[in-house]
């Protein structure tokens, strides 16, 4: 299938590497055109990734009108997302975009509806749910070994200096990073968020313009609670990019450092003051098809085009993750608990 690649910045490199080098994708996609407002950036990207035959444009309208493609890969900043996705869907292309899927909930709903009306796929790159740890945890919780899930807790503390558009974003942590963790919490627990209370800060010493840190408590649809503590200006010892997790159930708990250390424990023996517990295995997955990050997202998107079904991270599903983000933002702005189910 033929792809038009929009946005040739640093994030786009991971997509191009996956397309050209990952076994899930080799031979399935040909990038035939590039679009970037910065012509030099597009030319440099083409050279770096061996796309010497790709046509290069600075305007998406010209690219859509002059190059035959099946899909658009949108790797642009959030503020231009709606324009890129809207034009691509109306031109009859399937779209796989970076997250967030839109700059606000109204745009997100509009684009999801437009995709359905256009009979084209609009899928979002929630690549962190395609990590081995997240997949293993999701399957393990679904098995019922921990009983009913009562609490999901995530900590994310990294002092990341990106430069560029993120430095000036409002709600930078919630909108650009926390959505990954919110989406992972939904996937692992199998629950959507019903209510949220959130406090958002920009701590002393932050190099971001706004909202580099946030603390949120979500009441989930299954009755559990998801707590989130995060900062993008936390110096010193760091958590994993995938956060550090503790998940509690009626029979035990699971602890994941976001990397390779993943342990689960269940209660064992008599109900004494401090009950004994034992370690239980969290089984490895039988296949790595859904654990290869960007490559697995891209493969799922291509599979969905071929089958006519929606991909797992289709825009309709992603509205639930977006609602968590914008519910948290509204709570932080108003100081009130927000009813996500009712208001979003």
Automatic annotation (TrEMBL):
UniProt domain Gfo/Idh/MocA-like oxidoreductase N-terminal: residue ranges: 2-124
Q: Which domain of life is it from?
A: Bacteria
Outline the extent of the GFO/IDH/MocA-like oxidoreductase domain: 135-254
Gene3D superfamilies referenced in this protein's UniProt entry, alphabetically: Dihydrodipicolinate Reductase, domain 2 (3.30.360.10), NAD(P)-binding Rossmann-like Domain (3.40.50.720)
| Matches recorded under InterPro entries | Gfo/Idh/MocA-like_OxRdtase_N, Gfo/Idh/MocA_oxidoreduct, GFO_IDH_MocA-like_dom, NAD(P)-bd_dom_sf
Question: Mind telling me which SUPFAM superfamilies this protein's record contains?
Answer: Glyceraldehyde-3-phosphate dehydrogenase-like, C-terminal domain (SSF55347), NAD(P)-binding Rossmann-fold domains (SSF51735)
An example of a GO molecular function for this protein is:
nucleotide binding
- Do you know which PANTHER family this protein is assigned to? CONSERVED EXPRESSED OXIDOREDUCTASE (EUROFUNG), OXIDOREDUCTASE
What's the protein here called?
Answer: Putative dehydrogenase
Q: Which organism is it from?
A: Yoonia maritima
Q: What is the lineage of its organism?
A: Bacteria, Pseudomonadati, Pseudomonadota, Alphaproteobacteria, Rhodobacterales
């Amino acid at each position: 299938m033929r792809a038009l690649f929009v946005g040739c910045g640093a994030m786009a490199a991971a997509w191009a590497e996956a397309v050209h080098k990952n076994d899930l994708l080799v031979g399935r996609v040909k990038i035939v055109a590039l679009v970037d407002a910065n012509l030099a950036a597009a030319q440099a990207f083409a050279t770096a990734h061996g796309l010497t035959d790709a046509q290069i444009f600075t305007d998406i309208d010209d690219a859509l009108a002059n190059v035959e493609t099946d899909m658009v890969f949108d790797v642009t900043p959030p503020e231009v997302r709606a324009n890129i996705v809207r034009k691509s869907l109306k031109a009859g292309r399937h779209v796989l975009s970076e997250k967030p899927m839109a700059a606000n909930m109204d745009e997100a709903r509009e684009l999801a509806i437009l995709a359905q009306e256009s009979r084209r796929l609009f899928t979002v790159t929630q690549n962190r749910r395609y990590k081995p740890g997240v997949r293993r945890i999701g399957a393990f919780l679904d098995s019922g070994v921990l009983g009913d899930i009562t609490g999901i807790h995530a900590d994310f503390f990294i002092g990341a200096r990106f430069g560029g558009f993120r430095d000036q974003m409002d709600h930078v942590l919630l909108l650009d990073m926390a959505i990954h963790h919110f989406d992972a919490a939904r996937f692992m627990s199998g629950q959507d968020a019903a209510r949220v209370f959130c406090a958002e800060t920009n701590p002393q010493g932050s190099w971001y313009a706004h909202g580099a840190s946030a603390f949120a408590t979500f009441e989930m649809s299954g009755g559990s609670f998801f707590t989130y503590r995060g900062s993008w200006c936390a110096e010193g010892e760091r958590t994993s990019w995938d956060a550090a997790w503790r998940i509690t159930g009626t029979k035990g708990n699971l602890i994941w450092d976001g990397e390779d250390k993943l342990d689960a424990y269940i209660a064992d023996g008599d109900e004494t003051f401090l009950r004994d517990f034992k370690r239980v295995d969290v089984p490895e997955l039988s296949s790595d098809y859904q654990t290869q990050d960007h490559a697995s997202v891209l493969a799922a998107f291509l599979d969905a085009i071929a089958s006519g079904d929606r991909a797992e991270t289709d825009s309709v599903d992603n509205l639930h993750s977006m609602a968590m983000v914008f519910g948290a933002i509204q709570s932080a702005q108003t100081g009130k608990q927000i009813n996500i189910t009712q208001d979003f």
